[in-house]
Predict the 3D structure of the following.
Amino acid sequence: MVHIGRICFRKYGNFIDNLRLYVRGGCGGMGLPRLGGQGGCGGNVWVVAKNNTSLKKIKDKHPQKRFVGGTGGNSSVRALKGEKGKDIEIVAPAGITVTADDGSVIGDLNVEGDRVLVAKGGSGGTFYSSFEPEKGQVKHIRLDLKLIADLGLVGFPNAGKSSLLTALSNATPQIASYAFTTLRPEIGKVMYSDYKQISVADLPGLIEGAHVNKGMGHKFLKHVERTKQLLFVVDVCGFQLATKTPFRSAFETVQLLTKELELYKEELMLKPALLVVNKMDLPGAEDKLSELKEQLQHPEEFVDLLPDDVIPKNYMTFRHVVPVSAASGFGIDRLKMCLRQSIDEHATAETDAIHQERLKELRHRTHQRL
């Protein structure tokens, strides 16, 4: 049995996907020349992943966006080795990439408990430094949020993504008949009878050329990078953005979406994907669905239907192809079951892969000892 959890949506004005912070490691403590005492090291600054938090919470709690490690203790007659300065932890959500101002990656926070050192404290004064302490590292860092949901809806404007999210999560995102309905990220959750929750993100719709940053395409694709799985949504009757743009059949739409992902970053093609064929309440939908399924089973046989610039290097393989009507509710229950199955299978595979990697490391260490 599937039931829906109550959910509130965040408007984009309150949705922060990146944050720039000033961080400085603590200064080391003074050494004690006459007794050779060593000052304590300054405190470090860390970014630590924790569930149930957000970048907005960091900004609200620390409006100055400054984080400084504690100063190391001075050496004294009572304590020749000074105490280490207090470490500072910046609590951030999982799914964060920490970068320096020049764009270089300092580290990733993928799961709760992951830690990244962003500013090292200075060393305490010693004989080798004439008992003078060092200052801590100083830098500006960026926290870039990419992991926002288990599933990311991938589709062109007006494919029915917002309506689908409404049907899945009983939410009420703004829906209209014009092409660019979703201008702000919306995140909904489907709750199951065993209290399992799956988050689904409806992001600003792609347009052709998104990989070269047309419209909001680059922002969309950046978020897609850190969704665990992709949920393609296409109109069974095809799609046309405007009168001056070409009409795309459902098959063409799938390949064009694939091409946009591939051009932005080929690694996105490795993500597990499902396909939702929406608007099955329209006349002739069943015949068009049968045609689409045949084309998807042997895409290379229908390549002549595609313009050269739409043909991807590799065709996307879908775990499930689910026909639905977000308007009438047809197929929604089956879709929910398919989402759960796909997420659970992926989690099991990830766990098995981790166990195999650990077993491989253990065997390697045992072999080295022998």
